[in-house]
Design brief:
Order of helices and strands: EEEEEEEEEE
Number of strands: 10
Strand order of the largest sheet: 7-6-3-8-9-10
Distance between the termini: 15 Å
Shape: globular
Helix content: under 10%
Radius of gyration: 14 Å
Structural class: mainly beta
Largest sheet: 6 strands, mixed
């Protein structure tokens, strides 16, 4: 398992947590309603830092961002998802992580519909 910890570093003096999610290892994470700047830490189950992204600024206005791990770095691209991202983990504000099942948006990008599946167990 991995822990993806997302922060909005420009909120207040120390920043503000956007969400922390514990998920199966992945090189891609879609983020719903991300802040304009993110700091991302990815740690393994023992707490060892394995990837970092700092000052990841918004690349365009969209309701979703795609975070990608490239070695020990995280990069951000704001996106309008398509079917190639179906099955990708998606983090909601607060840290719940589900799986993106489908996405649709109008050509004008003024409306969208999406489905995400959330699952938990103890």
């Amino acid at each position: 398992m991995e822990i993806w910890d997302l922060w909005y570093p420009e909120a207040g003096a120390p920043g503000l947590s956007f969400g922390r999610g514990r998920i199966d290892p992945t090189d891609q994470l879609v983020v719903h309603s991300p802040p304009p700047v993110l700091r991302v830490e990815v740690r393994d189950d023992t707490g060892v830092l394995i990837a970092l992204g700092e000052n990841l600024a918004r690349t365009e206005w969209s309701p979703m961002a795609l975070l990608e791990r490239r070695g020990d770095r995280i990069v951000r691209q704001d996106i309008w998802p398509d079917e190639t991202l179906n099955g990708t983990p998606v983090m909601l504000p607060g840290g719940d992580v589900g799986i993106l099942l489908s996405w649709w948006n109008s050509d004008a990008k003024d409306e969208w519909r999406w489905r995400v599946e959330l699952y938990n167990h103890r």
